[in-house]
Amino acid sequence: MKIKKGDTVMVITGEYKGKRGEVVRAIPKENKVVVKGVNIAKKHAKPRRAGRRVVQTGIIDVEMPIDVSNVKLIAPSGKPTRVNYRIEDGVKKRYSNQLDEV
Q1: Per the structure, how many domains does the chain have?
Q2: How does pLDDT run across 18-62, given as a tens digit for each residue?
Q3: Which domain covers residue 18, as residue numbers?
Q4: Residue 15 placed within a domain
Q5: Residues 20-27: contacts with CB within 8 Å, 24+ apart?
């Protein structure tokens, strides 16, 4: 998967089209990413105890996974771009199609 945790991405389709955010979690097995502030769902949490701390209860907002094909990496120039890999000095590195760097 070409998108990693900590990358800044832009959503290119769906309800959140055009919105930018940071990748909080990448799920390679499902080919999905969780983007901060995007694809928010409401979850109903019952009160329960997890050891000594009390878990948040009531209706909470949770960021749900979005398919990696629906996001594009934001290049250092601020434009959305596709990502490829290149082997340099025996090391596999990511690079942008437009800028030749990432």
Answers
A1: 1
A2: 999 999 999 999 999 999 999 999 999 887 776 676 677 889 999
A3: 8-76
A4: yes
A5: 20/74, 24/63, 25/65, 26/1, 27/65
